[in-house]
Every structure is written in C-alpha cells, then in structure tokens.
C-alpha cells in the first residue's frame, strides 16, 4: 500500500497540472510561450513513459537524502516538463530533466554510506550574540531603505510598480539572496529549535524586509514559505513525508485554481504555480528551438568562459529575452540547459556531473533534516539560474559552507524510526 500511496500522490499531481495547464496556463498566458498544439501520440507516449520511469527510479532510490532530492526534481522539473511537452513539440525539455533523476539513482547505488567527519561550530550564547550582530550589520543597507517600502507588496499588490522603481546596487545584488535564502533561514530554523522565539521572529522580519526593499521579488517569499513549511512538516511527520506533503498541497492548489477559474476568478496563487513550475519548461523550449540549429555559446556568457573566448562577454539571459522573446526581460534558464546551449551534449554532461558531485557531497555531510527546506528551495532556484549566478549571487557556495561548518548532524536513531513509517519501504 505504501508504494501505491506514493504512485497515487504523484500521478494525481501530474493530472492536476495537466488540467491546470490546459484550462488556465494556455488560456491566460498563450501570448508568451505556452501553446496547445495538436496532440501527437508520440509526445504523449514519451511523456508518460519517462514520467513513469522517473517515478520508479525515485521509489527505488534508497538513501534518504538522495530520494528526497530526486522527489524535489520530480516535483519542480520532471512532472511540469512532462505536462508541457504533451502540448508543445519539444520532448528534449523532458529528457534533459530526466537525466538528473537517473544520475542521482546511480550515485545512490554507488554510495558507500560513509559520512564526512566535520567539526561543527554550535550555536551557544556567545556565538548567537556574534551571529545576530553580524547579520544586523549586514542588514543596515536594507534598513535604511525602509522609507521606500510598499506594505501592499506583503499582500502581493503593486508588485510590478515596486519592481520597476527598485534601484539596485552591487551590495544589494550580491547579498540579498545569500541572506534571504541561506543565512537568515539557517538562523530562523536554529532559533526555533533553540526556542529563541524573539530572535526567530527577528530573522523572519529581516527576510520580509529584504523582500520589500529589493523590488518585491516573489522568489524570496516562495523560499521563506518553503523553508518554514518543510520545517514544520519534518517536525510533525518526518522527512519521509516532506515532498509528498508539498506535492499534495500544490495539487490541491492547482485543482482549486481550476475550479475558481471556471467561475471566472483567477486566483492569486496561479501566478506562483506558473512561475515555479511552467516558466522553466517554456523558456527551455525557446532556447532549444534556437540553439538546436545555431552555434553554441561556448560559455562566452560566463567569466570563466571569457578566458577562452575573444570578444565581449555575452549577457545570455538578456540577449535571449530581447532576441528570442522580443521583450526587454531576462530569460533565465537553469544550469542543465545552460550546459547544453554552451557546449551541446558535452556541456550538458558537465553540468550534470557537477550537480551530482554537489548532491553526493551534501549527502555525506549528514545535515539535520530540519534544515532540509533550505536545500529544497535551491531545487527551485536551480531551474532559473546560470551556474555562476547560482554559486555566487544566489548563495549556493554560502549554503555549502554553512552546511559544512554550522548545520548539525542528523540523528540516525530518529531516521531508523521514520523508516518504518515511510511511504516507500526500504529507505535508509
């Protein structure tokens, strides 16, 4: 029955997104890159087969960190892509996302199970005072902009007005994501665990302040909500039910969005579902349409690539927004598609190997699962960030350092207890 529950949850999720795309995405956003072409049997066949294969591979992934990571890729990338290609003749979009599932399944089988021995700096009274002071100093440039905030942004109003009037600088560009996606979420969860409720509320307010003073970027709110949701689910039900809970909540939201749409009401959360799940496949198809028949970038858009390429650096996302979409926007793509448009299949394999090395390394750190929401939020960011942007601007390097030196180890005794209550038996 446990495997049946797992299959039922993700098949229902697939069907809900299928209805969501067919009734809302196409009808409201077809002017962008969401099409509803004539159905082709081969696209439906490829979609269903690869969807079922990834489900089976995920169920067969034994070690817990790998399986949760695979479920996150299944949720954010594979299933939305499987829905997208049914109506859009670009199955490569799905194939690229399936490769990471296969890769994690393989390293799960090859992993010896040995953890990295690391020295952890625990949060004590002196350390807490230092961290609070350090973060408060980093927050000063945000605090002094408090006169410019629009409180309506908290209720998702006037978002584009705030974004158009937002004036960034180097400091805000390079600190907003590491603070809002790594350092503050880490301290927020740590303070909740230590029952330092005032400091936890302060950390939460700092994240909201970053959101309000940096153009009301929805990713900040999505990341904060995801971290807190993951924490409370893990504390109440355990890590084994984390991704299934996120999937069930999104399935319910998708179905509710479709029902409300039939009554001529476009729910506010529709934008979030479209942004989180369907922008990635849509932009991927646009890039693939162009780079399948045109020269690759040879990493000329990256700082490292500039060492081996002559000429000016290519602003890939801005160029694609202007030339491929015909709009003055950044057409952000994830690291796997970046690898492909940079160097073809070889570039894709390089990106895949780098991600697998990172996943394997994080697994061996044996990080406490209550911090898993920070990693899950990066699974979302990976779909919209070039490699250098992901590592530096979005703070993945900072996350790895925090995970190594600050995040406590997971209690393996608790893991053994949770194994007996897992949706998928045999998880270690």
UniProtKB/TrEMBL annotation:
Alphabetically ordered keywords of this record: Membrane, Transmembrane, Transmembrane helix
Transmembrane segments: 7-24, 44-61, 68-87, 93-110, 126-144, 171-191, 198-214, 220-238, 245-263, 340-362, 369-385, 391-407
Keyword field contains Transmembrane: yes
Identification of the protein by name: Oligosaccharide repeat unit polymerase
Species for this entry: Allobacillus halotolerans
């Amino acid at each position: 029955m446990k495997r049946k529950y797992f299959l039922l949850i993700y098949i229902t999720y697939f069907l809900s997104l299928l209805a969501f795309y067919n009734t809302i995405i196409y009808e409201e956003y077809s002017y962008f890159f969401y099409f509803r072409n004539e159905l082709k049997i081969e696209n439906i066949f490829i979609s269903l087969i690869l969807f079922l294969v990834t489900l089976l591979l995920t169920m067969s992934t034994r070690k817990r960190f790998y399986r949760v990571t695979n479920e996150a890729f299944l949720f954010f990338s594979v299933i939305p892509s499987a829905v997208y290609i049914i109506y859009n003749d670009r199955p490569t979009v799905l194939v690229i996302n399936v490769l990471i599932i296969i890769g994690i399944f393989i390293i799960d089988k090859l992993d010896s199970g040995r953890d990295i021995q690391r020295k952890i700096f625990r949060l004590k009274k002196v350390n807490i005072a230092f961290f609070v002071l350090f973060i408060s100093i980093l927050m000063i440039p945000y605090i002094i902009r408090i006169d410019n905030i629009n409180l309506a942004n908290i209720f998702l109003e006037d978002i584009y007005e705030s974004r158009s009037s937002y004036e960034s600088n180097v400091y805000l560009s390079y600190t907003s994501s590491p603070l809002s996606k790594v350092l503050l979420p880490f301290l927020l969860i740590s303070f909740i665990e230590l029952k330092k409720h005032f400091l936890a509320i302060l950390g939460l307010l700092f994240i909201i302040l970053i959101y309000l003073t940096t153009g009301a970027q929805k990713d900040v709110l999505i990341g904060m909500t995801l971290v807190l949701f993951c924490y409370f689910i893990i504390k109440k039900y355990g890590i084994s039910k984390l991704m299934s809970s996120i999937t069930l909540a999104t399935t319910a939201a998708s179905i509710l969005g479709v029902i409300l749409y039939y009554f001529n009401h476009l729910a506010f959360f529709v934008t979030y579902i479209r942004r989180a799940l369907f922008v990635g496949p849509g932009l991927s198809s646009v890039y693939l349409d162009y780079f399948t028949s045109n020269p690759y970038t040879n990493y000329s858009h990256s700082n490292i690539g500039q060492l081996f390429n002559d000429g000016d650096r290519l602003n890939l996302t801005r160029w694609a927004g202007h030339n491929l979409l015909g709009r003055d926007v950044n057409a952000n793509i994830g690291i796997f598609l970046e690898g492909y448009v940079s160097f073809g299949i070889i570039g894709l394999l390089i990106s895949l190997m780098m991600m697998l090395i990172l996943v394997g390394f994080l697994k061996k750190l044996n990080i406490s699962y209550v911090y898993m929401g920070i990693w899950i939020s990066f699974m979302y960011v990976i779909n919209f960030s070039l490699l250098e942007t992901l590592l530096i601007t979005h703070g993945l390097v900072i996350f790895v350092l925090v995970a190594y030196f600050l995040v406590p180890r997971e209690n393996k005794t608790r893991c053994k207890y949770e194994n007996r209550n897992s949706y998928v038996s045999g998880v270690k």
